[in-house]
């Protein structure tokens, strides 16, 4: 065990949204480091089964509650030393574009959680922010090699839907609370995360699901030219824990690879690896989000010594293996179209 790992031994940690895809992977890592973990989640998109092994082993306490209720938030947060705040009204591209009011509800959720953290004397808050805080107008040309650096989030702000605006307001609130009240914090800007326990409303899992149910023609949203830096969940989890260890002043940091991957190339890799040869049907009118979104991760390298460990092709293969081993075709087929735009 390293000195940093031992700092988690017996530490009282709360993970909001801890039954989610990323949240539950974070819980695995914190339990592995010996933390005393409590999860609070209203299970609106999180699943109890994601943390079931820890619950059955008595290693994690679970509170099923809606953190938008101020008294509840206060009660659950009291006594925590570190709070990882991942609870959010959030889904994939189809969800954030088609559910603006619901995502704006995160303004209230984050405000209540941060206020409760301050009032109850939490030592450190880590916020799951997003690449959606970056200006849309810088992400429109796939032919341009652009890496988004943290400092370009500034006037004129141009976030990605109400979801991105709420994440930016969350970051700004924490930065102000660090300066004015001494509440220690860090914001992690996650970039399009994928891996085991991911959901079909996110692009990579949707592609894998289409191959799994042998959808032919295989539908691709947009032209397929969109560029992303899909980042494997274990890298996101390690970066989040490192941010908790090394950042105090509310600095926002990118957690994302610098691999530029076109949607169409990801689709081809899914088809190759699964041995599926469908016709492709492009749907240019479906939501695609920004056409060119890739992080610069040098600040995370400098402040956290963080470097993503899992190249996209390898992470994709691992995720396909997980999906094919754990899903049932009839079940996936049943609500597939709804899953693409819901949470
Ligand atoms: N998946 C990505 O690519 C990605 C990218 C950037 C940021 N994020 C952020 O990471 C976090 C985790 O996202 P995810 O993709 O693992 O899945 P997710 O969206 O399912 O996670 C949100 C979790 O919060 C819970 N929740 C929602 N509202 C709540 C409330 N009012 N009270 C209590 N719990 C509530 C949900 O049940 C769910 O478990 C979110 O904050 C999300 O915005 C995710």
Question: What features would you describe in this structure?
Answer:
The chain has 343 residues and is an alpha/beta fold. It has a domain at 3-197 and 232-258 and 294-310: 3-Layer(aba) Sandwich (Rossmann fold), CATH 3.40.50.720. The protein contains 14 helices and 13 strands. It has helices at residues 3-6, 21-32, 52-56, 70-77, 93-98, 100-120, 161-181, 203-212, 233-246, 263-274, 298-304, 312-326, 329-334, 336-341, and strands at 12-16, 36-41, 60-64, 82-85, 124-130, 184-190, 193-194, 218-221, 227-228, 231-232, 249-255, 261-262, 280-283. It has a 7-stranded parallel sheet with strand order 3-2-1-4-5-6-11, with helices on both faces. Strand 1 (12-16), helix 2 (21-32) and strand 2 form a beta-alpha-beta unit. Helix 8 (203-212) runs parallel beside helix 10 and helix 8 crosses helix 12 (312-326). The chain is globular and about 55 Å long. The relative contact order is 0.14. The mean pLDDT is 96. The chain binds nicotinamide-adenine-dinucleotide. Nicotinamide-adenine-dinucleotide binds at residues 17, 19-23, 40-46, 66-68, 86-90, 109, 128, 130, 190, 192-193, 202.
Strand content: 15-25%
Strand order of the largest sheet: 3-2-1-4-5-6-11
Uncertain runs are none
CATH architecture label of the domain at 3-197 and 232-258 and 294-310: 3-Layer(aba) Sandwich
- Secondary-structure element order, N to C: HEHEHEHEHHEHEEHEEEHEEHEHHHH
């Amino acid at each position: 065990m390293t000195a940093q790992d031992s700092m988690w031994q017996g530490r009282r940690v709360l993970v909001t949204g801890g039954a989610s895809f990323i949240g539950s992977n974070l819980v695995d890592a914190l339990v592995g480091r010996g933390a005393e973990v409590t999860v609070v989640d209203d299970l609106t998109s999180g699943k109890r089964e994601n943390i079931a092994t820890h619950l059955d082993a008595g290693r994690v306490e679970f509170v099923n509650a809606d953190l938008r209720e101020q008294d509840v938030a206060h009660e659950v947060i009291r006594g925590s030393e570190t709070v990882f705040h991942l609870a959010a009204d959030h889904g994939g591209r189809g969800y954030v574009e088609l559910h603006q009011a619901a995502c704006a509800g995160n303004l209230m959720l984050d405000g209540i959680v941060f206020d409760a953290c301050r009032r109850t004397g939490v030592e450190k808050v880590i916020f799951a922010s997003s690449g959606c805080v970056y200006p849309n107008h810088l992400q429109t040309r796939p032919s341009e090699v652009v890496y988004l650096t943290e400092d370009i989030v500034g006037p004129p702000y141009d976030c990605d839907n109400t979801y991105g605006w709420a994440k930016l307001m969350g970051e700004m609130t924490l930065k102000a609370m660090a300066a004015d009240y001494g509440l220690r914090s860090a914001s992690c800007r996650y970039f399009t995360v994928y891996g085991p326990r991911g959901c079909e409303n996110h692009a990579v899992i949707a592609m894998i699901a289409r191959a799994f149910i042998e959808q032919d023609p295989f539908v691709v949203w947009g032209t397929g030219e969109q560029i992303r830096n899909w980042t494997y969940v274990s890298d996101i989890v390690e970066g989040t824990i490192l941010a908790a260890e090394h950042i105090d002043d509310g600095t926002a940091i990118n957690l994302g690879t610098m691999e530029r991957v076109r949607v169409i190339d990801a689709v081809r890799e899914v088809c190759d690896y699964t041995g599926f040869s469908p016709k492709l049907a492009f749907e240019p009118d479906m939501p695609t989000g920004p056409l060119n979104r890739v992080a610069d991760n040098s600040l995370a390298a400098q402040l956290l010594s963080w470097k993503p460990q899992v190249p996209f092709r390898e992470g994709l293969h691992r995720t396909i293996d997980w999906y094919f081993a754990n899903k049932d075709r009839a079940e996936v087929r049943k609500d597939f179209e709804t899953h693409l735009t819901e949470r």
